[in-house]
């Protein structure tokens, strides 16, 4: 192969994919090709803006109560109505985006870093290290994340940090297993053999030669972890063991707004149940659709390997 | 080529003779791994519960007991002994079927609570699993075979929604609108199936449906992608090329090869199902394991916490073990491949 390459120095330029059509044309083509993905991106962009600029977008203080305006339906003054103690639901939904996004993104980062490292080490080194790590992962995978998080929240610490740390540890094995599988086949590849023959130490091989080659599946699996992490945080707050509904720092979480002790109010004012849940479902939906699209673009073989 | 036929036949005979052993070996290996995983779970739970600063007495102290009484209680509960000793005692108790006593409720034996809660959860989970398989598998198969048809689009749409809608929101919406439109509210008392099957099913069908929808979405997507994968295989193309009827291609060649992985993946969902049951049981007032877990965790009832986490872990491990066995039974490559390496 190499001998057929022209031996002249060709100036290498990076041509972005929109060179031919112009940015607008390229964007339009992408939107037409995958309208759902474009829509999800738009939804996510909106939610990110909501999260970052929450204080400016919210029309009311999310914690301010107004007992004269309890359980009001959606109106021009209160876009999403008010809750049982007269807090503005729209402002609370806006602030809730912060918790969900932050938990989703940080958990995913931590999970993928941890899972990739463990997977590469386990797959490349093999032997006893692999066996021990595998059994450890078996154990972790048999622990239901939600129940474990409940345990941690109730007897150690309740809050965002423990959610992220625990979730990262509990989800990492799923990433690690996937990475390990890829590494097992990469290990036998010629370029790894070549690196080894040249005397590269295992650490260098793992970081320089193997890591870049597992990035595609890792990115794909990461896009699935985001939605899952957001759902688990919501569930935990729903059970009263995550972010409280009147947290001084985070203000509220979508899950906390749906706590079942408010069920009697929700039956009188269904908008209380609709808006936070819809925001949550929409966010997760957008992440999932984006993940599917990423998978099809980066690594279609993964179809079916993850669900 | 010129190789003698004899040795080959010998090897084949040896394989057939050893088949039983291979299978037993596989079962034993999987069983040992399961036990190891369970032990790991006990250690993790125990450490998590016992390495914290306060103990059950910090909760009880809100009742303002005098100091010497607290010490006496601590000694009585065995909380003043070294950690490994407490762990050993607990594990030994578990092995003999003694899970200890609850710290509250007149020190009721933990086993009684578990015994009352287990059937509820098992019923809920099996109903939800049944719903998910009955709906998810056929829709997934049809969706894959009639790819891009209206049915496929609809099925995929429902599945994507099912994956994104949180169980707790779906449950809440069902309760809210069930209350508004049909004056439905979950019964406050629970009836066991063996006491009054009809009344029991009346309480259970809605929670099972809520839990089942989520599972069904996952099952449908897995089924669809496995069937699509198999349809791309050469032997399916051969079957078409032979001129077989579609019915035969689908049932004999596609389905028989694509439904086995589905079993495994459904089994692997068990760990998520257990998390979701907590939510559903809490929302619908079902006195199952998840409900007991939530209650014991918020009241710091250690023995009960440890027992519930252990039981849930055991259910997950048992389900995975069972799935492995079924898988090995259906797909000989697993048990034979496993005996060679891994």
Please provide a written account of the structure.
The complex is a heterodimer of chains A (307) and B (342). Chain A is built from twelve helices and no strands. In chain A, helix 4 (89-125) packs parallel to helix 7 (160-186) and helix 6 (145-155) packs antiparallel against helix 7 (160-186). Chain A is flat. Chain A has 307 residues and is mainly alpha-helical. The longest helix of chain A has 37 residues, at 89-125. With 342 residues, chain B is mostly helical. Chain B contains 14 helices and no strands. Chain B has helices at residues 6-50, 56-60, 67-77, 83-95, 110-145, 150-164, 167-182, 197-231, 234-241, 246-268, 270-283, 289-299, 302-330, 332-340. In chain B, helix 5 crosses helix 8 (197-231) and helix 6 (150-164) crosses helix 8 (197-231). The two termini of chain B are 32 Å apart. Mean pLDDT of chain B is 80; it is low at 1-14 and 338-342. Chains A and B meet through helix 5, helix 6, helix 9, helix 11 and helix 12 of A and helix 1, helix 6, helix 7, helix 8 and helix 11 of B.
Keywords:
heterodimer; A: 307 residues; mainly alpha; flat; B: 342 residues; 14 helices; 0% strand; disordered N terminus; disordered C terminus
For the largest interface, the chains and their residue counts are: A-B, 47 and 58 residues
Q: Can you give the helix content of chain A as a percent range?
A: 55-70%
- Largest sheet of chain B, described in full? none
Number of strands of chain A: 0
- In angstroms, what is the radius of gyration of chain A? 24 Å
Please tally the β strands of chain B and state the result. 0
Number of helices of chain A: 12
Oligomer: heterodimer
Provide the residue-averaged pLDDT of chain B.
80
What fraction, in percent, of the residue positions of chain B are helical?
over 70%
Shape of chain A: flat
Tell me what portion of residues of chain B adopts beta-strand conformation. under 5%
Tally of DSSP helical segments of chain B? 14
On the 0 to 100 scale, the average pLDDT of chain A is 85
Write the H/E string of chain B, N to C: HHHHHHHHHHHHHH
**What is the N-to-C succession of helices and strands of chain A?**
HHHHHHHHHHHH
Radius of gyration from the alpha-carbon trace of chain B, in angstroms: 26 Å
